[in-house]
């Protein structure tokens, strides 16, 4: 079969037309309100339960509020959105299901662990680039307390956290993708997606659930290497190579893994998990993680930089640890995944 003209190398595509990120809305919790990005986040909670009876309902409300915020910024209604691509960390993606239910938008529920923001944006961009939609919303969320209950221990247990651990961000961000600026309502587009690199599942046999950064770093390294090969680029072709959830420990591992392959990203790399918190002043271990980590950082800090022209081209790659309570308790290792997007100034 003849290769499609938009396929780039083994794992990437160059979109047939740029897909616009036309609006976004970020909401985050009380710990994030104490971090360095607080002033740039659209809405900050004063109560991490968000007025709900439990943590899971609070996370659903985060997603609902994020999508509502995007619609209000653009002046669009839910009936004008073709699809929503939504994901979270909870079992059966329940935060997305209950959070999106009232909008009545045709729904794709996703799970890529903490890489779900990249997965949602990549699939949304392909839907628009392929001519299957004119407007889509991509939304992901995470909540510290619901994630602790889902993957580790209830907060009442009072478990101790090692330095290698990361702190799940309480937050959500929604993004409106459109085929043209005319579809953005009253919003001014922020940036454009020009390429997508889909990651592979990489398993290096790590079984420490408190060291997600090192479990995910090999997947991030694999995606970066493959992306640069597919597009015929070097790290110098980017203003920023932004991982999502590696934290301090995982970021060091990523740089070292790529140096072994003669790829030096040390001057270009940053990690959302190290940007959303102050690692010296806040007790967050190695940094932030969760579906909300990369989403909130992208919406609040990176997209404004692309819109202003301070950043011209960014490789954005959220990372995910593909474990569950069942797999971990059965003694399985923690595979990693990354999803990549080329974001450019318009």
Describe the structure.
The chain has 346 residues and is α/β, with parallel strands linked by helices. The chain folds into two domains: 19-184, Peroxisomal Thiolase, Chain A, domain 1, CATH 3.40.47.40; 192-344, Peroxisomal Thiolase, Chain A, domain 1, CATH 3.40.47. Helices cover 32% and strands 24% of the residues. It has helices at residues 55-74, 94-100, 116-129, 144-151, 212-231, 247-259, 272-275, 291-308, 325-329; strands at 7-8, 12-28, 43-44, 83-87, 107-110, 135-142, 167-168, 171-178, 191-198, 240-243, 269-271, 288-289, 313-317, 319-321, 336-344. Strands 1, 2, 3, 4, 5, 6, 8, 9, 10, 11, 13, 14 and 15 form a 13-stranded mixed sheet that branches. Helix 6 links the parallel strand 10 and strand 11 (269-271). Helix 5 packs across helix 6. The chain is globular and about 50 Å long. The two termini are 35 Å apart. The model has no long low-confidence stretch (mean pLDDT 90).
Measured distance between first and last alpha carbons: 35 Å
CATH level-4 homologous superfamily of the largest domain: Stage V sporulation protein AD
Derived from helix and strand composition plus strand pairing, the structural class reads alpha/beta
* Mean pLDDT level: 90
Helix percentage: 25-40%
Main pleated-sheet profile: 13 strands, mixed
Task: Evaluate the radius of gyration.
Answer: 18 Å
Instruction: Determine the CATH topology of the largest domain.
Output: Peroxisomal Thiolase, Chain A, domain 1
Q: Name the overall outline.
A: globular
Number of helices: 9
